[in-house]
Amino acid sequence: MTTACARPPILNRALLLRFVSVVASSVSFYLPLAVIPMYAGTSGTATAAGLANGVLLVATVLGELVTPRIVTLVGYRWALGAGLVLLGAPALALLGSMSVPMIFAVGVLRGIGFAITMVAGGALTAALIPDERRGEGLAIVGLVGGVPSLLALPLGVWMAGHWGYGIVFVLTAAFPIVAVVTVLGLPDREKADSEQHGVLGGLRNGALTRPALIFAAAAGAAGVVVTYLPLATQTWVAPIALFVQPAAATVGRWFAGKIGDRHGQVRMLVPSVGLAILGMVLMAATHEPAFVFAGAALFGIGFGVLQNASISLMYARVPAAGYSTVSAIWNAAYDLGMAAGSIGVGVIVTATSFPMAFVLTAAAMVPAAVMSWREGRLLPSPRP
């Protein structure tokens, strides 16, 4: 006998269809992520290789900020379809040209496509999940997209080395283009965000910017881990740690989804930032593999919990018409945070050492911990 308090199911036909484009965009983004810098290095300089993904990242952030306006004009479904095409199709141009300008141009187009896919697709996904189970639903979506990314990143490098760059670029294009077919079966949610829910309005809303800033601090630390841990540790340690960290983050997202829906997402903020800080401190012992692995696991769990809790909290604070704004602000915080961590710590490493840089990165997250405590004290998470 069904009770009045029975919880609605998370999975439905539309969400299962959406999973196809989630997997496709994840594979298309991560499969060539390490390959394109290698490709740029063969036809240019080391600087060109380093800038290849930098151009992609900048274009992604700019695209994230304008996507809510695109959604206003055409709706979620058309925006998602266009984003998938832009993410995939430009990669085919690399089959005919190895020039650095072409590589950068492809990076710009793919960055915009990825931004549209993440923002419009993320907002549509949130609308397909019952409000009272949004945290758990987003955790499942994170798992669906996270596992392919874990596999695609090293697989792309392996494929390029064994079969050549061409097959990587063809698959990069094929996955999202094929997935466009599934977009036709998705419901098209509200076309227009009102002006008050645009990105500029969202940035003036402290209830949205505070969780975004807290998450950006942890994203900055994640940028440090990805960029500098391979340089700071023994050769065999880094690959293991860089697998442990995102794997632990996936577990953290799942945990946050299960617990946060029941007890309030805002309560997850302080513990998650605390775990991230502790993990960075442990990873500062760069010559002790056991400490590095333990730190990567703790940081990963904290980062994953914060990923899920911050975006779930932000979605809960706006009406459905504001979902694309939330998605844009959160994704921009993610990308800008990672970029700031990667660039800023480069200066610190030059002046000090890798262990000190990791310790200072941990210290830089302390204000985020204080902000998290104040968030839980002053503005509790709304309950469905």
Automatic annotation (TrEMBL):
Q: Where are the transmembrane segments?
A: 15-40, 46-66, 78-96, 102-126, 138-157, 163-186, 207-230, 236-256, 268-285, 291-316, 354-373
InterPro entries in the cross-refs: MFS (IPR011701), MFS_dom (IPR020846), MFS_Exporter (IPR052714), MFS_trans_sf (IPR036259)
Which part of the chain is the Major facilitator superfamily (MFS) profile domain?
14-380
Tell me the membrane topology, using the record's own terms: Multi-pass membrane protein
Location (main, coarse): membrane
Location of the protein in the cell? Cell membrane
Q: Does the keyword Transmembrane helix apply?
A: yes
Q: Record's SUPFAM superfamilies?
A: MFS general substrate transporter
**What is any one of the record's Gene Ontology cellular component terms?**
plasma membrane
PANTHER family per the UniProt record, alphabetical: QUINOLENE RESISTANCE PROTEIN NORA
Q: Can you name this protein?
A: Putative MFS family arabinose efflux permease
